[in-house]
Amino acid sequence: MEQLTNFERKKEVLRYLAYKNQELDRITHELIDESMIEISSIAKERYLYNTFNILRNKDGLYLEGTNFYLIGQDIEKHLNKSESCILIGASLGHEVDKRIRYYEKISMTKALILDACATALIEDLCDRICNEIERDLKIDGKGITSRYSPGYGDFPIGVQRHFLSILDGKRQIGLTATSTSILIPRKSVTAIVGIVSKDEVKKENTCTNCYKNNTCKYAKEGCGCGP
């Protein structure tokens, strides 16, 4: 899977650090560059995904062959053009968490920059996973919606454990969730994408149709959050 270039990733890191075209000094530039290399060197990228048919009844949406209901009007709207969906789990591994915690004790600046670098990398990994899925679906004239994760809108974050049990996340890639639904390792993502026709992909993947459009700081600044 093709990764972002260093320039593209640094641009993402700066965005997560909330820089808005400020002039950065040489030391900060070097610290970001060093942190990007450091995170990439210790990250252990692991991921899995699986496809499920979506069934609908009076109680809402659930995944065929499971007892997993997709709770909330927002996820139902997100998948309203989909007859099936894909559950995704992705992680950078425990060493990234350990390194960030280490720097929190000796340099909060370095810790914050490492955290932003890790966020940029896990988001890049998720984009690469989705690109991989799209290439496979393209043969059948299909595509995917944008990613939708537990905790978005009214899709409760409390489903994380159930979500991961269906994916067998712990055994497959060592991804778990605490009793309070925090993913472990922390730099991890769970998400659902709907499978739709190519025409629906073009209509769906826009800022206008995003559930965060009214509150998104990137949309307010006139730039999207995606590639």
Structure characterization notes:
The chain has 227 residues and is of the alpha+beta class. Helices cover 45% and strands 19% of the residues. The protein contains nine helices and eight strands. It has helices at 6-16, 26-42, 73-78, 94-106, 108-138, 160-167, 169-173, 198-204, 217-220, and strands spanning 46-57, 60-63, 69-70, 84-91, 142-144, 176-177, 183-184, 188-197. The strands form two sheets. A six-stranded antiparallel beta sheet has the order 3-2-1-4-8-5. A two-stranded antiparallel sheet has the order 6-7. Strand 1 and strand 2 form a beta hairpin. Helix 2 (26-42) crosses helix 5 and helix 4 packs antiparallel against helix 5. The mean pLDDT is 89.
Quickly describe the structure.
By secondary structure, the protein is an alpha+beta fold. It is 45% helix and 19% strand. It has helices at 6-16, 26-42, 73-78, 94-106, 108-138, 160-167, 169-173, 198-204, 217-220, and strands spanning 46-57, 60-63, 69-70, 84-91, 142-144, 176-177, 183-184, 188-197.
Spatial gap, N to C terminus: 15 Å
- β content, as a range? 15-25%
Average residue-wise pLDDT = 89
DSSP summary: helix tally: 9
Radius of gyration: 18 Å
Query: How many β strands by DSSP?
Result: 8
SSE sequence, one letter per element: HHEEEHEHHEHHEEEHH
Low-confidence runs (pLDDT<50, min 5 residues)? none
How would you sum up the global shape? Answer: globular
Main β sheet profile: 6 strands, antiparallel
Bin the helical content.
Answer: 40-55%
- Give the neighbour order of strands across the main sheet: 3-2-1-4-8-5
What is the structural class?
alpha+beta
